[in-house]
Design a protein that fits this description.
heterodimer, A: 418 residues, alpha+beta, two-stranded antiparallel ribbon, 53% helix, elongated, B: 231 residues, alpha/beta, six-stranded mixed sheet, four-stranded antiparallel sheet, 10 strands, globular, binds adenosine-5'-triphosphate, binds magnesium ion
Chain lengths: 418, 231
Amino acid sequence: MTPFFKRYKLALFLAFKSIIKGNHWTLALIIAVMAFSFVNLIFTSSIISGVMATLDQQMIDTMFANIVLSPEENEYYIEKVDELLPKLEQLDGVAAVSAHLNSTAFIEYRWKEKLSQADRGKSGTWSVIGIDPNNEINVTSIHEHLVEGQYLDNNDRDQVLLGVEVAGGSRSQTPDFLNLGGVHAGDKVRLTFENGIMREYTVKGIFCAREMQRADHLAFITRKEMASVFNRQVFYDRATQILVRTADGRGEGSIIPAIKGTGFKGEVRGWDEYAGAQHAVIGTFGVIGSVIGAVGLIVATIVMFIIIYINVLNKKRQIGILRAVGIPRDAIVGSYLIQALSFAGAGIVLGFCLINFVVHPVLAAFPIDLPIGPLNLKVEMGRMVISAFALLIASLMAGLVPAVTVMRENITRTIWGV
Amino acid sequence: MIHTSNLHKTYGHGSGAVHALKGVELQIETGEFVAVMGRSGSGKSTLLRILGLLDEPTQGDIYVDGINIARLPERKKAKFRLNKFGFVFQEHSLVSELTVLENVYLPAICSSHNNEYIEYARELLEVVGLTDRLQHYPGEISGGEQQRVAIARSIVNKPKILFADEPTASLDEESSHIVLDLFSRLNRDMGQTIIMVTHEPEDRKYVDRVIYLRNGAVDLGGAPLSPDLLN
Ligand SMILES: Nc1ncnc2c1ncn2[C@@H]1O[C@H](COP(=O)(O)OP(=O)(O)OP(=O)(O)O)[C@@H](O)[C@H]1O
Ligand SMILES: [Mg+2]
């Protein structure tokens, strides 16, 4: 054996004996600190990633589907929708498509009770989207989030579907003066469209998609009805947007070029291009999460440092004896490094098990309900590897510094303390 | 084979400085069993630690087979301690996490070329009469037994010189005899060079020669003291 391997073997031997014969409570404490530090490093970032994934999914499910087609620049509408839709549906990877005809409307509730023209109570302006309900249910999931009443049918004319933030009431998150103050299914509301047309509708249903930013602030009528509000002859074949749902597991990347290949002239964008603002907000939380993680790592390092330092100081005399006997410095320092790495390794494995076999199942069994939906941990492998690596480095430092410090001291001082 | 020239050791600085060794000159031959004696505070432990490379002299040289070991870098000193020197301390000095057998072969793990050292460690433990304690830990055996384990450990690498600082100070009379008999047997049968600090006048009967220290210098027994030693 080369001298290097002999010293390595000796270091392993000393480390092993030290762990086996050392104080088991200290050992348990060190490993627990490591494990919880690891969980801490993973947990915060996983929550943020989970929230981000949930919000993204909500955006896909309620607002944009996977791909959004919009008119050419300087055009307000996509024309000849009835020809376009079948072409899109036939594309490989496309699961469903749905056309939207968008407008805004001034919506009033209990308008007869208003005291004067200036009284704007129980009214407001919201986006109203004309949809083909039979298509829409394959593209977005609004129909799964009804809290009252029913979804629209293709032939509905005087029915409207309201988001919970439009309807108001106890389920809405916005203050009363910003919504209709508690409309229920079966109530009547009056819509005044951009072109001045005023019509009364019965609220057919109310939905709460928990997408507080946008979806829950929408109102839906059928596309046929919307076309008739404007000019049925011209508008029956028009859309403001066409949403495309891709088949499971198909990325937008390959399908967008195919859509452009059909000769469609307008803009084609993936949902994520609409998510910029939301991603910026979440990115901010990501930075905050990283800062919390870094602070956690520093605290973990200091705690490990203290524990290992005390451990080494307790064995100062022992180290002096090893040096007096002539045990090479590398073997002594090496044994402390191996110990520190073993602690970190055991802590990381334990932390990994805690996350996967305790935190995950517990959250699955008892979901924590956030305003945007159930909390969903998204543990990223890369994050895991980086955290494990950071902990290993931290523990190496925590092992190295005290050992080297003691090795620098005079042997007689380490043994006899003078 | 080991000799020193003008060895000085000063602890501390300025007014609090203690001049523990003041120009020690001595020479010890291979195979000698030498006792170092003198009053408490005369510098015996200091001298032994410096000879054994556990501490550095403030001034002066130590030659072993012509090499000035006092001037070696720490890494080479450690090698010297491992392969050429053995040390037995006054108080218990075993590694508490290792068994008796492991303590004995510990220094040999790094220096030997095969695994025969385990067998050799067993033999040494037989020599010191501890065959039935191999798997015990230091905390489980008596002080005298610990000291015998320390002796076995100190010679496992077949050192040129064995240093012992009051090895029997913490032992009762019977254990002391066992340890000292062991030393003289090692010296007689294996030709082991031994330098032992003791304050027991009786121990003189075990050794070939006594070096007296007085005030940090070798007392040549009746020889006139040099002027700087008078104050
Ligand atoms: N680390 C130290 N710092 C300061 N002074 C020291 C130190 N070690 C020893 N001394 C002093 O050096 C002198 C010699 O000490 P040393 O331990 O060598 O004496 P000794 O002959 O071994 O005594 P004893 O028989 O009591 O063991 C003493 O005056 C002691 O106080
Ligand atoms: Mg002494």
